[in-house]
């Protein structure tokens, strides 16, 4: 199915959506128009307001102002369940299903076919197989959902939503933890839904994926609408400019710096030679130079996370050497790594990176305190100074030290893990 015409009537029409959290305006009069059979990317830097828009449009949080129309009719969902009942379903990055139940039970949770009060399991499994076949999936629906990859779990969540008669499907960063092959499976499903006339809002940080699958984009910045554009013919640099709000020349002039760093042959800041752990990560070599960002690329399961955990001492290496500033050091624990100036932003932010119930200040101080040891508590005045410094340095928005960290956007709260290795941090 082609891109729907720009003058086609909107399926979902959001106007002037506004939402503040205390003094901070997270959304300021934002519009979004989605047409039937359209895949519409919702883009913006961390903290731009994408999640707030989704939550306010689907009744997860109350909006301060704005209207939402589905097929021309004004709607006002007061909860996620009400949004689903009106035809708008959201599938989040962390799939909201029950991993210990079977695939079929998850697909029909709360609406199992029954007879005389008993669940008709065979019929439910048959229906589940037929439903998934429509998405090109042929799997054992009696097996627990947890037995399957995140991609399959996403497809199950999408299938359930569509079966609950979703006409608008919101996918909030569904590809963040998928490998290339799994992204392709998900895209196939998205194309199928598009051909059925379902409108999809797709939140992602991967611009290549936007160009691969989307028809139109809406860009937000600091809670405001920057613009809506068709993807075809939109240069990538122009898109980046819309997201960052900086001129292209400014983005371009950073290149020579990068080339100079690449040509740097001075002593590495840190290096790892034949570093590894048996039955965990094969021995590898990693060289970190001043001012560089080293990307670890690979498919899911290839050992990227494990490599990072070894470098930070979260798993102890059993072979190889680590060298920091030319001196061989032992990195057998996070404490060793922190002492040598390493910081770590873990993949599992909520469970490993932050304490969600504590404030920004408490999380930053906690990270610093780990390095100082528990016998030398940081005096309150120093805590305030250091917290203010990190809030500036890490660009934590809103710059409120007393805000519970769990309320910040995903990537912003992840940055708060960084002070752990501050000395300043050499590598993270
Ligand atoms: N429940 C909340 N309470 C207070 N502030 C919030 C809450 N939810 C979001 N915010 C703030 O609103 C702003 C927009 O956040 P939002 O999560 O919508 O951004 P985002 O574009 O989805 O970012 P990311 O890509 O990092 O998920 C941020 O400054 C965030 O700190």
Automatic annotation (TrEMBL):
InterPro entries registered for this protein in UniProt: AAA+_ATPase, ABC_carbohydrate_import_ATPase, ABC_transporter-like_ATP-bd, P-loop_NTPase
Enzyme class: hydrolase
Residue span, ABC transporter domain: 12-247
Gene3D superfamilies: P-loop containing nucleotide triphosphate hydrolases
Superkingdom of origin organism: Bacteria
GO molecular function, one term: ATP binding
Enzyme Commission number(s): 3.6.3.17
The keyword Cell membrane appears for this protein: no
Keywords: ATP-binding, Hydrolase, Nucleotide-binding, Repeat, Sugar transport, Transport
Name of the protein described by the UniProt record: Ribose import ATP-binding protein RbsA
Organism of origin: Methylobrevis pamukkalensis
């Amino acid at each position: 199915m082609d891109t729907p015409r720009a003058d086609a009537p909107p399926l979902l029409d959001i106007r002037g959506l506004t939402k503040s959290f205390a003094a901070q305006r997270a959304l300021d009069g934002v519009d979004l128009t989605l047409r039937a059979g359209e895949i519409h990317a919702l883009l913006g830097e961390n903290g731009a307001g994408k999640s707030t828009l989704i939550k306010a449009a689907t009744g997860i949080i109350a909006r301060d102002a704005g209207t939402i129309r589905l097929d021309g009719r004004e709607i006002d969902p007061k909860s996620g369940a009400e949004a689903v009942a009106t035809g708008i379903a959201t599938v989040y990055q962390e799939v909201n299903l029950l991993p210990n139940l079977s695939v079929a039970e998850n697909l029909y949770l709360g609406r199992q076919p029954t007879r005389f009060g008993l669940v008709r399991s065979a019929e439910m499994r048959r229906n589940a197989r037929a439903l998934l076949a429509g998405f090109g999936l042929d799997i054992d629906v009696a097996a627990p959902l947890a037995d399957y990859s995140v991609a399959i779990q996403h497809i199950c969540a999408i299938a359930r939503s569509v079966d609950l008669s979703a006409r608008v499907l919101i996918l909030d960063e569904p590809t963040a933890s998928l490998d290339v092959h799994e992204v392709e499976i998900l895209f196939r499903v998205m194309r199928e839904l598009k051909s059925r006339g379902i409108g999809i809002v797709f939140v992602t940080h991967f611009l290549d994926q936007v160009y691969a699958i989307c028809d139109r984009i809406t860009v937000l910045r600091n809670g405001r609408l920057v613009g809506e554009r068709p993807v075809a013919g939109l240069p990538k640099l122009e898109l980046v400019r819309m997201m960052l709000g900086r001129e292209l020349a400014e983005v371009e002039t950073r290149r020579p710096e990068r080339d100079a760093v690449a040509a740097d042959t001075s002593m590495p800041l840190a290096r790892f030679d034949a570093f590894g752990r048996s039955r965990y990560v094969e021995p590898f070599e990693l060289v970190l130079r001043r001012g560089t960002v080293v990307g670890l690329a690979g498919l899911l399961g290839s050992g990227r996370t494990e490599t990072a955990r070894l470098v930070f001492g979260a798993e102890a290496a059993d072979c190889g050497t680590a060298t920091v500033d030319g001196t061989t050091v032992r990195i057998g624990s996070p404490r060793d790594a922190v002492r040598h100036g390493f910081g770590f932003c873990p993949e599992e932010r909520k469970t490993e990176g932050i304490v969600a119930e504590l404030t920004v200040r408490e999380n930053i101080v906690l990270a610093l305190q780990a390095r100082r040891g528990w016998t030398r508590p940081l005096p309150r005045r120093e805590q305030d100074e250091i917290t203010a410094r990190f809030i500036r340095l890490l660009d934590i928005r809103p710059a409120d030290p007393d805000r519970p960290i769990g309320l910040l956007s995903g990537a912003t709260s992840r940055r708060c893990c960084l002070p752990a290795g501050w000395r300043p941090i050499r590598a993270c």
